[in-house]
Specification:
The complex is a heterodimer.
Chain A (H helix, E strand, L loop, with lengths): L3 E2 L9 E3 L9 H5 L5 E2 L9 E2 L10 H5 L6 E3 L9 E3 L7
Antiparallel strand pairs in A: 2-5, 3-4
Chain B lengths: L4 E2 L9 E11 L3 H12 L4 E4 L16 E2 L12 H11 L6 H21 L34 E2 L5 H11 L3 E3 L2 E11 L2 E11 L5 E11 L28 H9 L3 E2 L5 E2 L26 E2 L8 E2 L39 E2 L2 H6 L7 E2 L6 H7 L3 H4 L4 H10 L7 E4 L15 E2 L6 E2 L12 E3 L10 H20 L5 E2 L2 H15 L6 H15 L3 E2 L1 H18 L8 H26 L10 E2 L13 E7 L2 E7 L7 H8 L1 H5 L4
Classes of the chains: A alpha+beta, B alpha+beta.
Amino acid sequence: MHFTASPVPCSARPIQFDAGLCIGCNRCVNICQVDIMIPNPEKGRPPVVLYPGECYYCGCCVMVCPRENAIRLEHPIMNQARFVPVHQPQEA
Amino acid sequence: MTREFEWPYPDETAQTEHTESDVLVLGGGLAGCFAAIAAAEKGCSVILVEKGATERSGSAGSGFDHWESACTNPCSKVTPEEITEAYIEEQDEYSNGIAHYIECREGYDRLLDIERYGGKIRDTDGEFIGAEFRDEKTGLMFAYDYENRFTLRVWGSTIKPALYKELKRLGVRIFDRVEATALLTGSRNGTRCGAGAIGMNVRTGKLMVFRSKATILAMSRPARIWLFNPDLVGLCEFRPPQSIGSGHAMGWRAGIEFTMMEKSVRGEFSAAGRSFPPYGTGNNHNTWYAATMVDARGVEIPYVDRDGNELKTVSERYRPAKGQKFFLKGGVIDEAKYPYRGPETLDFDTLIARGYRLPFYADLSRMPEMERRVIWGMMVGEEAKTKIPILDNYTRRGFDPAKHMLQSYGSGWQSAAFLGQERQLFGAPGGIMHDWNLQTNIEGIYAAGDQLFASDCCGFACATGHYAGRTAAKWSKSISFADIDMEQIDQERKRLYAPLDRNDGISWRELNMAVSKAMQNYCGAVKNDDLLKEGLRLLNDYKQEIVPQLYCQTPHDLMRTHEGLDILDVSLLILNACLIRKSSSKPLYFERSDSDSTAADAEKGFIVLHQEGGKIIHRTVPHRYFGAIKAEYESLNRDYITKGRS
C-alpha cells in the first residue's frame, strides 16, 4: 500500500518552529506520545506537524529539544488566562 | 495550499511479528512501567507494549506534582490502615480497598525506587530549606496536611525518563508505537485463560502477536465518551488523547468483569470547551492548594475550617481543625465529608451574598515566599502539562507571581462551566473488578493503575503496577503457555485493517462525534430505562451500519479509528451498567428519573458485569468483599514484607 498524508486543518497552531534554530534532529517527533509530527523530507529542516488538532499541549517536544526557543508551544488564544497587577488590599 | 507528504515509515501492514514472554504488560505509563520492572526483577522475560513513546508516555509522562497516601514515609503521622479506611468511608464504600491499601502500604517504597532510578523525590538542591512544608532531615516536602505529612510534593517531570532507563537496564523488551487492540485467550486444563495480546504498529501498520503466560492490563481509564471536539481532539479531556480506555474495551470484548461503570461525573476539564488548561487559571485546589484568593477589588477571600471558623494565617490552611486528626484532599476528594474535611475558602454563594465581586483571582504575592515559590515554579511546573504551556508561557508573557494575580473563571475552582450531560470518568471512576492478586475473572490476566476500579493518582498507579507485576510473575513461573485458537488472530487482522482497505467512507472523527452526542442524549445527567435502551439501540446500529463504512489513509489514522471503535465499545459497557442499576445512587453520581427505591437496599454494593456469548451477565458483590485489609495483605505478601520493604 502506498501511504501519503497532508496536514489536517485545525483552528489552532500549537507548535511552531523557528527554522533558523531547529536543526532537524527529530527528537520532538520521536518523543511525542500523540505522534502528531513526521520528519521533514528535507534533512535538517523542522518536522511537519501533520495532526495539530491532536496536540495534547504536554510540552515534551520543548523539553527534549536541544536548541532553546527552536519550538514554541502555545495554547489557542481562548485558553490564555488573564493576569493583572496585584491590587492593594482593601477592607471588605 | 495543502502539501501532500510521502508517509515516512515503511508499509508493513502485510507483515506479522510473533513474540513470546513470561509476562506481557499492556500500557507503558506509570503502572505499566512498574509492572514490567517488578516482573523483570523476579527474573521473568517481560514485554512492554506502549502506543506512544515510553520515555514520556501516559498521563504522567510530562510530570506530576504530588503523591498521595505515602503513609509509610518516615515523617508520616498516619497509618496505611487509617488512610485506606478513611477513603473507603469517604466514598460511601464505593472505593477500592485492595488497591488503596496497596497504595498506602507500598507507595513510599515506589518513591524510593524512583529515587534509585534517578528521579527526584526530595529537595536535594536545598531550594526550600526552612520552609514549613519541608522536613529538614530528609528533605521530603509535603502538601495539604503539614501536620500529618502523608502527601508528598515531587518532581514528577524527572520520573518517566528514570523509569524508562530502568526498564532498559533490566532488559525489558519495549515495543513503542504499538497499539494493543485485543486480548488473546486460550485454555489450560479446560479453563479459559489469558494467552497474550494482539497489536499493531501505529507507524508501519505491522501486526504484532504477543504470546504470554501472564498479561497485565495497565492502560488508561476511558475518555472522549461524552466530550469530543473534532477540531481540538487533544484538548477534549484531562488525560492524553490516546488514553481513551482501549484496555477497558478489549477487556469487555474478551469477557472481563467491570464494576462501577455506571458512575460518571459532570465534566471538570476540557480545554477544548468549557474549561481552561488544568491549573492554568487562578484557583486554590490540588497543585494550587492553598493559594490566597482575592476578589476583583483585591479583598482577600477567607479560608475557614470544617466548623466555619475563619483562619487567620496561611499556615493554618495546612492544618487539621481542632479535634481532627487529619484531613483528606487530593484528586479524588472534591469536598470531603465532615470527619475528613480540610480548610477551604468560603463557598461561592456566601461570598456573593457578602458582596464579594467577580471575577476572583489567585494572588500569590500575599503568601510567604516559600509558599509562593512552591506553588508557582515547583508545583506549577512539575504537574503534567504545566511546565511549558503554563509556567514557561505565562512567564514569557510577563507573569510574575509576586506582582500579578491570575484570574479565575466561572464560579468553581476548576474555572469551568459544564452542562450536566457533559460527563467524564473522573473522581475514582469504574474499572476492572479484581481479587487480592489484582487478577481479573480470567485466569492469567491482571490489571493495574487506571484500569482498576476507583483508581486515583500516581501513587496508586505505581504501587498497583508493581504489585500486579509481582503476582503475574509468580503465576507465570508456575505454568506453561496456553493453547491458542489461531482463528482469533485471523479475525483480528480482518477487523484491524478493514478501514485501510476501503477507498472512501466515514472518518473516525465523525464516529466519535456521533458516539459522544448519543451518550449526551441517552446517558446524560439523569438516566432513564427507556432512554438508555434507545442509546443501546443507536450505538448497536452504528456498529452494524457505520463501522463497516469507516475509512482511513495512514496507520496513524488507523490507530485513531480503532480508538473510536474502542470508545464505542466502552460506551456500550457504560449503557449496560447504567441499565442494570435501577435505583439512584448519590455516591455513584447516578441519578434516575425512574429510580426504583425498592431496589436500593439490594443494590448497595458493587454491580459487576461482563459479557459472554453476546449476553450481559451481572452479579452484586458486597462492598467489603476484600475482607480485613491488613490481615489479607499480610497473609499474601510475606515475601515482600520480610525483605523489609513494607
